[in-house]
């Protein structure tokens, strides 16, 4: 492996750095998007039960807020439950924008890595071919070792760049889609809670 890195030239180091950063982002986001952390089951039903039993205190709301991203959104509405439906929805939307922004954290970086990795590989290809033509200009085609070195550098950096970019693109699409699905489910749960609390929907 070390021989491949050396043969690929100095551009292998930024490509390797991109791969490490991409892997760290993917693992971090997969951990952050665990369903029980983001969308705990039956949370709206539990809140409604507390509300019906007149046990929904500020302490309960604070606990709901701390436990999950969905809890943060619902807690924003619960803090304004004495107001109109529109006020509750506005508070939920404001908190929701912040939650979505945090859910999308690092995804732009992952997308950037997916875009620049093949470009770094292409740059390595160009540099390798420049070395080949420089060698041909200075010593002709009689030294195959020099030619092979330049071609090897070109091919290795291209392969390395694509090896980083392809998984990065796949995970970027997957994680972006997962955020979209989480947001839709959060919106559904939040609207359900608002309707139930305002008496416009049966539990």
Which SSEs are present, and which pair or pack?
Elements: H1 2-8, H2 12-32, H3 35-38, H4 43-52, H5 58-67, H6 69-78, H7 85-103, H8 107-139, H9 144-197
Helix pairs in contact: 1-9, 2-8, 2-9, 4-9, 5-6, 6-7, 6-9, 7-9, 8-9
| Average of pLDDT | 85
Taken as a percent bin, the fraction of beta residues is: under 5%
Q: What can be said about the biggest beta sheet? A: none
- Gap between N and C termini: 60 Å
Helix percentage: over 70%
Count the domains: 1
Please provide the ordered H/E string of secondary-structure elements: HHHHHHHHH
Question: What oligomeric assembly is this protein in?
Answer: single chain
Unreliably modeled segments: none
Structural class: mainly alpha
3D shape: rod-shaped
How many individual helices? 9
Radius of gyration, CA atoms, in whole angstroms: 27 Å
Please report the total strand number as a whole number: 0
How would you describe the overall organization of this protein?
The structure is a single chain. The chain has one domain (2-113, 165-197). The protein is rod-shaped, with a radius of gyration of 27 Å. The chain is an all-alpha fold and 203 residues long. It has helices at residues 2-8, 12-32, 35-38, 43-52, 58-67, 69-78, 85-103, 107-139, 144-197. The chain has nine helices and no strands. The chain is 83% helix and 0% strand.
């Amino acid at each position: 492996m070390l021989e491949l890195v050396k043969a690929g030239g100095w551009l292998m180091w930024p490509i390797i750095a991109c791969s490490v950063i991409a892997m760290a982002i993917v693992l971090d986001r997969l951990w952050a998007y665990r369903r029980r952390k983001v969308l705990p089951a039956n949370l709206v039903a539990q809140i409604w039960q507390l509300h019906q039993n007149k046990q929904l205190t500020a302490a309960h709301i604070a606990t709901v807020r701390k436990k999950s991203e969905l809890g943060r959104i619902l807690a924003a509405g619960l803090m304004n439950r004495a107001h109109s439906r529109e006020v509750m929805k506005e508070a939920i939307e404001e908190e929701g924008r912040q939650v979505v922004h945090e859910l999308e954290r690092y995804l732009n970086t992952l997308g950037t890595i997916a875009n620049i990795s093949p470009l770094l590989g292409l740059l390595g290809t160009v540099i390798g071919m420049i070395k080949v033509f420089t060698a041909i200009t200075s010593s002709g085609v009689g030294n195959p070792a020099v030619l092979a070195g330049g071609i090897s550098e070109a091919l290795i950096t291209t392969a390395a760049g694509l090896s980083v970019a392809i998984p990065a693109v796949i995970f970027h699409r997957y994680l972006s889609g997962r955020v979209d699905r989480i947001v839709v489910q959060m919106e559904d749960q939040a609207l359900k809670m608002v309707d139930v609390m305002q008496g416009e929907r049966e539990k």
